[in-house]
Amino acid sequence: MNTQLMRISTAVALSALISTQALAQQARGGKSYAGIQLTQTQTEYNVGAKFSIPVASIRLGYHINDYFSMEGRLGVPIGDDTDKVNINNVAYQITLSPDYMWGLYGVVHLDVTDQFSLYALAGYTRTHGSSKVTGGVLPETLKDDDDGFSAGGGIEF
Predict the structure, then answer these.
(1) Does residue 23 surpass a pLDDT of 60?
(2) What is the pLDDT of residues 128-143, one digit of tens each?
(3) Of 12, 43, 60, 75, most Cβ neighbours within 10 A?
């Protein structure tokens, strides 16, 4: 697809979303909400190992106004993930096993219809779990907490 056509398609799709959003907006300001969700988390170790783990979460939030809310999440990972890396010509296998995670986020909402909306969020996440490293001299299991900036987006029904 050429670049000009891609820009036009994006502009048309964006304007359609904005128009629909303006018609479908429901007053949310000052209202609390709760829900459950299934998310896919992705993380990367500084040695190049990458992990992707599904998480079942509980969400609690408060709409500051119709477009912005503050939200807290508590999640339990569903399974582990393993990746292989090569460090100084030694092959290692790392298995990431999170126990739980929690986070606080600012969320921007864009209603598409009365029953469907898009959202983007950014905030702080903390994870507790362990990593098992095999390869090299001895296997090692490391208990660790990790935290930092998180961002993402999604759809709500």
Answers:
(1) no
(2) 999 898 987 777 888 8
(3) 75
